[in-house]
Amino acid sequence: MSLTHDAAPSPPQSTGRRFRAYTTKHLDELTARAGLGEGERLAVRAVATVLPFRVNSYVVDELIDWDAAPDDPIYRLVFPQADMLPSADVSRMADLLRRDASRSEVNRAANEIRARLNPHPAGQMELNVPTSGGKDPLEGMQHKYDETVLFFPKQGQTCHAYCTYCFRWAQFVGEPDLKFASSEVDHLVEYLHRHPEVTSVLLTGGDPMIMGESVLRRYIEPLLGVETLESIRIGTKSLAYWPQRFTTDPDSDGTLRLFEEVVAAGKNLAFMAHFSHPNEMAPDLVRQAVARIRGTGAVIRTQAPLIRTINDDPATWASMWRTHVRHGMVPYYMFVERDTGPQDYFAVPLAEAYEIFRGAFAEVSGLARTVRGPSMSATPGKVCIDGVAEVAGEKVFVCHFIQARDPELVGRPFFARYDEKAVWLSDLEPALGASRFPHEQEPHGGAAPRIGAAHP
């Protein structure tokens, strides 16, 4: 549906407020609003010296229930918690803040803590970065699965607000060595021409929708001429954190015209929307934004991780999936919190994650059962926990690879010993007498190839 068509969804009449970001310099004032005492506020600021914090006026004014803070799920979604890091680390950083230590001393201490938090999980730096001619790494790109390349636009490496559990937190802490980013879209296009097996490009970050229409266009337009490319995906939380991007922002109409051009060029435009809680769908502005995006021919798929204290119950997920279906979006993934950052704080055990998924899945219609999960994006691939069963007298997790670094593993079931405390693939052990998991075998008669070598 063209935006110039008489029946196209029209933007709301209110122009809304201009975007305003709040950062660490506003943190003390905002946490005081949540009723935190002086000591608690200092501990939160200490955590924010290590992990990134950013929120905006829409989230603060429209999404957070301040009467329920600090227990409100959206508050917990965006505001650091005092116990997200080990107490010794929090005390160390709080002491530096208390005595007004130099910025270099604070950064040095913060970097020591960050290094212990697995800033780039699942082999992103070592295994996923492709090369040019088998030699020089291509900055701002990842190629883990044959069909899909991830691209990190340089101007899209921030977000309208940061999630406290974000597995890409390392993109936002100001350390160049921890950051993926590139402005060289020509390198991406050349790579796609050399690798016709790649049928999908995912623009990610950060959040590509932080970019204005003219900048976003510079990255997307060159992809439209790549014949072997079937789909362009945009990974974004903008629908939840700043729906004005598609309704009242000055370039909202231009952005939607760009989406139309992608569809007109014969590409599937997959808008990968990140919703963590039903409350993010409550404002009517979100539903208006969803209607306008869908009006361009784009498909909106929804995904989020399962996060302790925010969405760790079946009713929350069932409500969220039903709402998404009602507004024409496609439930896609329930992820497991990744092994990075404050994983110990947010992770839900796999056994519990499966029960939450199963409970929610049972409460929705078939149209919402497009969702997959709970899924771990681990080093060998996306591992889904399909269930818990007893096989040959042994209690096991039944698993399979939704996607895999080694394509031969995709769709193959395997079994892991049941462990009620396990939160990640590395916590699991092979079951039924096996000494290794399938992904620990040597594929195709040899050692597993490095992605950089496999995709020169």
UniProtKB/TrEMBL annotation:
Ranges for region Disordered: 435-456
Keyword Cytoplasm attached: no
Cofactors (names): pyridoxal 5'-phosphate
Keywords: 4Fe-4S, Iron, Iron-sulfur, Metal-binding, Pyridoxal phosphate, S-adenosyl-L-methionine
Superkingdom, taxonomy of origin: Bacteria
Database matches in SUPFAM superfamilies: Radical SAM enzymes
PANTHER family: L-LYSINE 2,3-AMINOMUTASE AQ_1632-RELATED, LYSINE 2,3-AMINOMUTASE-RELATED
Name of the protein in its database record: Lysine 2,3-aminomutase
Organism: Streptomonospora wellingtoniae
